[in-house]
């Protein structure tokens, strides 16, 4: 419905847009009542989403406190540059260990006779000459004890259960940064600190605020083609071949990674470094054609 519906990265931007648009749509100012009500509903939903989104931050340093979960995840350059939605498997809650059933010991490991009940599973007590048998609390009536700790929960009786979740990445993530997700985001007992490991790309590289792209172009493409296919964050695009004739870097303003500054966002530049490819070997037939081509240019 609205032209900027999915472009807001913070509450400040959203509220500014709301104040401007609500005046245009208000029925008292000639606006459509149905569109006005739809906009109000959209704003409330967006406000809720962004409020929750504020629980996700980019940290330059790693100083965990309280209960936390730390791990390293691999991200693509495209994911961090465009702030895409990424799937993770994260341990959101604790459950009783299914291997040891919460007993903290390995149920398939070695056993030993209970030293309290001597393997009987009960204790005999005498009260005024009357014998009473009660279940042994030390071995819980089994008559034996497991010696080895559970290999899955390491003797805790509980394990962290992983679930597949989706996170809209905040702008500005870089190699070595920490993606911090507050425990309130998932209603989890602990915060999440996810260290960013960037997957190497064959021709993309992040450098400061900009995206560097090495474009491998055959020499004849510049001479014979009007347009050359170049990889960008949005996909393959056709650009005029003549801009690469000098062999110098070509800058595409505002086509690089998204950046967050002072609660607002902007985009860096895409800088194309052309790498002109020449054949390593040329056969005699190709040489003759090239010589003929050079002579034609001189005419």
Please state roughly what percent of the residues sit in beta strands, choosing from under 5%, 5-15%, 15-25%, 25-35%, 35-45% or over 45%: 35-45%
CATH architecture of the largest domain: Sandwich
CATH superfamily of the largest domain: Urease metallochaperone UreE, N-terminal domain
What is the N-to-C order of secondary-structure elements (H for helix, E for strand)?
Answer: HHEEHEEEEEEEHEEEHEEEEEEH
Remind me, CATH topology of the largest domain?
HSP40/DNAj peptide-binding domain
GO molecular function: Hsp70 protein binding; unfolded protein binding; zinc ion binding
Protein name: CR-type domain-containing protein
Keywords: DNA replication, Metal-binding, Stress response, Zinc, Zinc-finger
Q: How is this structure best described in words?
A:
Strand 16 (258-261) and strand 17 (264-267) form a beta hairpin. Helix 1 packs antiparallel against helix 2 (33-53). This protein starts with 10 loop residues before the first helix and ends with a helix. Residues 1-5 have low confidence and may be disordered. It has 299 residues and is an alpha+beta fold. The longest helix has 21 residues, at 33-53. The chain has 4 domains: 11-53, no CATH class; 56-92 and 163-198, Urease metallochaperone UreE, N-terminal domain (HSP40/DNAj peptide-binding domain), CATH 2.60.260.20; 111-146, no CATH class; 204-298, HSP40/DNAj peptide-binding domain. The strands form 7 sheets. It has a 4-stranded mixed β-sheet. Helices cover 22% and strands 36% of the residues.
């Amino acid at each position: 419905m609205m032209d900027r519906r999915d472009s807001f990265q913070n509450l400040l931007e959203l509220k500014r847009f709301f104040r401007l648009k609500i005046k245009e749509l208000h029925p008292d100012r000639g606006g459509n009542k149905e569109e006005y009500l739809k906009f109000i509903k959209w704003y409330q939903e967006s406000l809720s989403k962004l409020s929750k989104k504020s629980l996700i931050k980019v940290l330059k340093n790693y100083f965990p406190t309280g209960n936390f979960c730390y791990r390293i995840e691999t991200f693509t350059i495209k994911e961090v540059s465009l702030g895409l939605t990424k799937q993770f498997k994260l341990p959101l809650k604790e459950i009783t260990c299914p291997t040891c059933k919460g007993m903290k010991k390995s149920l398939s490991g070695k056993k030993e006779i209970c030293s309290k009940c001597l393997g009987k599973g009960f204790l005999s007590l005498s009260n005024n000459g009357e014998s009473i048998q009660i279940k042994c609390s030390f071995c819980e009536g089994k008559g034996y004890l497991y010696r080895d700790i559970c290999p899955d929960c390491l003797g805790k009786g509980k394990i962290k259960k992983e679930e597949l979740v989706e996170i809209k990445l905040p702008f500005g993530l870089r190699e070595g940064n920490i993606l911090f997700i507050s425990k309130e985001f998932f209603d989890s007992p602990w915060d999440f600190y996810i260290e960013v490991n960037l997957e190497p790309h064959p021709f993309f590289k992040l450098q400061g605020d900009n995206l560097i792209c090495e474009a491998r172009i055959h020499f004849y493409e510049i001479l014979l083609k009007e347009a050359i296919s170049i990889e960008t964050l949005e996909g393959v695009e056709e650009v005029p071949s003549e801009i690469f004739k000098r062999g110098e870097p070509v800058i595409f303003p505002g086509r690089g990674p998204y950046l967050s500054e002072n609660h607002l966002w902007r985009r860096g530049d895409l800088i194309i470094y052309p790498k002109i490819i020449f054949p390593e070997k040329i056969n005699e037939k190709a040489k003759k054609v090239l010589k003929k081509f050079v002579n034609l240019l001189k005419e």
